[in-house]
């Protein structure tokens, strides 16, 4: 499977700001109790699927703090990121965990090997026409009964399926949740539930944040 043509630019951009990014966001879950609760529910669903594999991939893991959080929730979590510098920082901060460089569109993971996949804002830099290939990889590596938790910014309304915006690092894309849920469904990932988190009045970008939870049939 070929990688999205924008991957190189995204990788280089995050390599350049990796240290600042890690310092800025290392404690970001501390002030996000709702997201912590969603991650806890995701972890519980993975753990209770006792017949399936227990490993979970944090795809687009960055400096690894969410991977470590999943590990603390009792999951056999490992991280994958396109940025070698991010992966180096993750290794340095969490030496007991596994991190590797890789592309979400061409994962070095066997079919059906995972009980869970976390994609926390990791598809936002993938152009919409390339996202189906990434979702296909999510579905391929998940075992039957495995769960995907995917987070992304929402579009301004149902009449807009996707739209780009000027992200601080590199161009990013928003999705209408119904459109992304349909794409997951097309690849055998049935929606279990979704949450919408409203932005704070002080947030620079007034985008809704969507978290979709899906299960592989």
TrEMBL record:
- Which residue numbers delimit the Methyltransferase domain? 56-146
Specify one Pfam family. Methyltransf_25
Question: What superkingdom heads the lineage?
Answer: Bacteria
State any GO BP term from the record: methylation
A GO molecular function term, named singly, is:
methyltransferase activity
Record protein name field? Class I SAM-dependent DNA methyltransferase
Which keywords does the record carry? Methyltransferase, Transferase
């Amino acid at each position: 499977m070929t990688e999205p043509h924008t991957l190189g630019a995204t990788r280089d951009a995050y390599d350049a700001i990796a240290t600042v990014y890690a310092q800025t966001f290392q404690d970001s879950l501390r002030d996000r109790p709702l997201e912590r609760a969603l991650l806890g529910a995701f972890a519980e669903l993975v753990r209770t699927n006792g017949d399936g594999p227990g490993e979970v991939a944090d795809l687009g893991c960055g400096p690894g703090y969410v991977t470590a959080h999943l590990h603390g929730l009792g999951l056999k979590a490992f991280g994958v990121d396109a940025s070698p510098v991010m992966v180096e920082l993750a290794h340095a901060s969490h030496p007991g965990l596994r991190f590797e460089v890789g592309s979400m569109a061409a994962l070095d993971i066997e079919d059906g090997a995972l009980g869970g996949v976390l994609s926390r804002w990791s598809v936002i830099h993938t152009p919409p026409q390339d996202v189906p290939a990434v979702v296909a990889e999510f579905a391929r590596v998940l075992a039957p009964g495995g769960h995907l938790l995917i987070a992304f910014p929402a579009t301004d309304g149902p009449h807009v399926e996707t739209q780009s915006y000027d992200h601080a690092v590199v161009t990013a894309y928003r999705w209408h949740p119904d459109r992304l849920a349909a794409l997951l469904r097309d690849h055998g990932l049935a929606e279990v539930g979704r949450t919408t988190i409203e932005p704070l009045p002080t947030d620079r970008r007034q985008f809704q944040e969507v978290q979709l939870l899906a299960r592989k049939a």
